[in-house]
Design a protein that fits this description.
The chain is an alpha/beta fold and 116 residues long. 41% of the residues lie in helices and 20% in strands. It has 5 helices and 5 strands. A 5-stranded parallel beta sheet has the order 2-1-3-4-5, sandwiched between helices. Helix 4 links the parallel strand 4 and strand 5. The longest helix has 11 residues.
Amino acid sequence: MNLLIIDDNAGMRRLIRVIVGDLADTVYECEDGAQALGTYLQHRPDWVLMDIKMAGLDGIAASHQITLADPAAKIVVVTDYDDERLRAAARKAGACAYVIKDRLLDLRPILSGQAR
């Protein structure tokens, strides 16, 4: 499996890579939503792990761009914000899951197909 991690915080990208990296053959990274679509189209990862709050283009808008380009894209929002309005916006933008950063271990069953 190939992953794309999109987060403006390099430390958070490293942490996510440590937690789920063993599930992936290849992990790609980018640091903002503006790079997300181009990186997605270049690599066509199996999963996208998308932060919401980023300078410039936020993760909701970037998720929408990706799912417009590829309706089959699998996007998991990975954020600090446990907010129902953001969850609804993420779903509307095409995200299939929403994980709070203090529960990063919840990513493993999602990516391995074992989520309930």
